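Propose amino acids for all 302 sites.
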């Protein structure tokens, strides 16, 4: 059999045994043997909607090198191999997850100064802002100030949160002062007014501490906002344009990407309004769209 015949037999085997979305990423037949080693890739079609244009775009998302398989050709010309189906699909899911997290991180690097303008985040994490603001204005948050604070226990957990991020630290008097400010913030802090500085400090803390907020402080709303933002830009980045979605289409796309059946549509719509108010998303003529600056950042980093 020639190489194309063998490839067709292997593809037929893969389609029946493993899945129809697989493809051969690389093919190597060892000379003088009945062994063929292949690298298997995974490709899924994604339909992306633009409700204003009433168009659908079909894009394929590919993951190369999911698994290596060694096939044997028997005496009757049939091919077979050993594989672990569960392991293959676990690898696929991990690759999907890593892609989503990469997009989330790129987006967060662009939008984090705007997180303070999201009303629910601003309200929920007001203690973070209050601590940063106090230290920024006075140079420290003294032990005496903490003792006299009305809701001391609530504030303490956010001191711990900010200290874990090294945004603040305790000096020799056990007063809290600014910590190791990240390099990316230093220039912005140097040139910005107080409000801009505090927005950046607040947003950076939320960005870097999202896992802690969810797992330790049991506040999952940050993740939901990030996932909503990322769902939109994930879709838009696939077609390299700012697509326009109705709220209903947006909701269905979000549920499809993140499998978030527990987020009720009413709450989702409220989140969209919050993100529009913060200028992270835009809404006009009944359609939601994104920001071209964020799309450019995604294109440069993906």
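Proposal:
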């Amino acid at each position: 059999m020639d190489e194309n015949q063998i490839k067709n037999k292997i593809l037929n085997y893969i389609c029946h045994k493993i899945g129809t979305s697989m493809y051969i990423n690389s093919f190597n037949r060892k000379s003088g043997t009945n062994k063929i080693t292949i690298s298997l890739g995974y490709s899924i079609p994604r339909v992306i909607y633009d409700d204003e244009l009433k168009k659908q775009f079909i894009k394929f998302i590919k993951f190369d090198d999911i698994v290596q398989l060694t096939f044997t050709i028997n005496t009757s010309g049939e091919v077979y191999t050993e594989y672990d189906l569960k392991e293959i699909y676990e690898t696929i899911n991990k690759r999907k997850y890593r892609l989503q997290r990469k997009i989330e991180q790129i987006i967060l690097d662009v939008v984090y100064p705007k997180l303070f303008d999201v009303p629910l985040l601003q309200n929920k994490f007001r203690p973070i802002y209050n601590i940063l603001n106090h230290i920024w204005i006075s140079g420290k948050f003294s032990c005496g100030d903490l003792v006299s604070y009305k809701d001391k226990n609530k504030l303490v957990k956010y001191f711990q949160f900010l200290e874990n991020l090294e945004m603040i630290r305790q000096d020799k008097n056990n007063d809290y002062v600014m910590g190791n400010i990240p390099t990316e913030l230093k220039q912005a802090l140097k040139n910005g007014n107080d409000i801009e500085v505090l927005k950046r400090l607040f947003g950076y803390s939320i960005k870097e501490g999202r896992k802690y907020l969810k797992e330790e402080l049991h506040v999952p709303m940050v993740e939901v906002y990030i996932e909503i933002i990322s769902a939109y830009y994930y879709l838009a980045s696939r077609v390299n344009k700012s697509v326009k979605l109705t709220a209903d289409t947006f909701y269905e796309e979000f549920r499809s990407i993140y499998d978030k059946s527990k987020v009720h549509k009413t709450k989702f719509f409220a989140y969209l309004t919050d993100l529009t108010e913060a200028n992270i998303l835009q809404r006009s003529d009944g359609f939601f769209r994104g920001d071209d600056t964020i799309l450019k950042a995604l294109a440069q980093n993906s």
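The two ends are 41 Å apart (CA to CA). The mean pLDDT is 88.
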